[in-house]
Amino acid sequence: MSTEAAPARSAADPALLARGLAALRIFVGVIALSNGLAKLFSFRMIDIGPYSGTLVDRPEARGILEGEAARNDLPLVPSIVNDVVLPSYDVMQWLVTFTELGTGALLILGLLSRGAALIVFAQHFGLQLLYFSSGGFAFEQPHEWVPPLILALVPAGLVWGLDGRLGRNRDGLRWPS
Length: 177
Description:
Blueprint lengths: L13 H28 L3 E4 L2 E4 L3 H14 L5 H9 L3 H21 L3 H19 L10 H12 L8 H7 L9
Antiparallel strand pairs: 1-2
Helix pairs in contact: 1-4, 2-3, 4-5, 5-6
């Protein structure tokens, strides 16, 4: 019988890091998919057991765009919202809805994870710019765009994702994970 203890796992353990990134990927995917479903089926409240949350539906998204663009003093942001997005909101609302649904599903499945995360990052960082002048969500808004940025920079679909399975089955072909 040995008195030596098993070596402790380091926080830098690659397998542990990969599982943590996979959990983050799935979590970001659930958020995107939930907001897409809220826009598709026009609901705002979600209750799962003791958890209750508020999502943004299509009419509320338009109201946010109108209100924040009116207060925004960054160059280009008000003109992009007022001259491009709002006049074509009948199309843009569905583009945003299906972008959230698609990227959310891709992130949950771990398929084309980095590309999906890059799209989510662009969408959420754009919201950060929209909220910039009003101070609304200025402090907490980075929690929405920093995780997708991390997921866009590192391959997070290799564990618990289809990117890892597809990459293993391709000799000499690098799957974009």
